[in-house]
Amino acid sequence: MRLEGKVAIVTGAASGFGKGIAERFVREGASVLIADLSAEAGEAVAAALNEERPGAARFVRTDVSRDADTAVAIATAVEAFGGLDVVVNNAGYTHRNKPMAEVTEDEFDRIFAVNVKAIFLSVRHAAPYLEAKGGSILNIASTAGLRPRPGLTWYNASKGAVITATKSMAVELAPKKIRVNCLCPVLGQTGLTSTFLGDDTPERRAQFLATIPLGRMSTPEDIANAALYLSSDEAAFVTGVALEVDGGRCI
Questions:
Q1: Residues spanned by the domain of 234
Q2: Which of the pair, 212 or 195, is modelled with greater confidence?
Q3: Which of the two residues, 193 and 157, has the higher pLDDT score?
Q4: Average pLDDT, stretch 182-198?
Q5: Mean pLDDT of 95-117
Q6: Any long-range contacts for 96-102 (C-beta under 8 Å, 24+ apart)?
Q7: Is the pLDDT assigned to residue 192 strictly greater than 70?
Q8: pTM
Q9: In total, how many domains does the chain have?
Q10: Residue 250 belongs to a domain
Q11: Is residue 251 part of a domain?
């Protein structure tokens, strides 16, 4: 119960890392608003969590790149649960692994809208509520922002922006007692796996795994454990950190 009594918003929580974070937060005592574009999957996650702990979760269909959607999601969390303590900006988007010159303008715009602009919108609406008690913002970046590789150039750039923004936000929001950190996961078993790899073949997976000293991809549980620590009071003196959850990939 390390988040007992806390209220959290997790974006992109209908699947993958976000779902793992939402599940762990509820089990640790938090009330969680699930914000995701996928209504069917998001409602299913909320329903499952409410079976575990009645009233612990709500779903709001949210396009995190839209200001109005973000405002509604945050207002709903505050109204439903009585406040806001933690915001996890997890929703992400990428282009298929390919040469940077082949990425379309629409793909580029969507990457930066979901991965970067969404954080701008989230903080603008959430900060006044987080300031009330001293809260936590957790941005999900990527090892791609620390150890970029060809084929995902514009995705890499967006995650580099997340890391830099996290550190700047941490300094600027510190006087308001709001902590800001980010996680840098290595490739995991999510819906984006095949997009990152380009061709999801045993050979490509083996090639990628050879770059991870601990020899496996990340899991939602790995990311949820790290998110739990950084969002809990145990990390009360931790801000501006880009925590690598990568099995040694960035060494």
A1: 7-245
A2: 212
A3: 157
A4: 78
A5: 96
A6: 96/195, 96/198, 97/151, 97/152, 97/195, 97/196, 97/197, 97/198, 98/151, 98/198, 99/150, 99/151, 100/153, 100/154
A7: no
A8: 0.94
A9: 1
A10: no
A11: no
Residue 135 domain-assigned (yes or no): yes
Provide the token pair at 142.
């990527």
Q: Is residue 1 part of a domain?
A: no
Q: Give the pLDDT band of residue 198 (cuts 50, 70, 90).
A: low
Two structure tokens written together for 39: 């209504």
pLDDT tens column, 10-22: 999 999 999 999 9
Point out the residues that are catalytic.
155
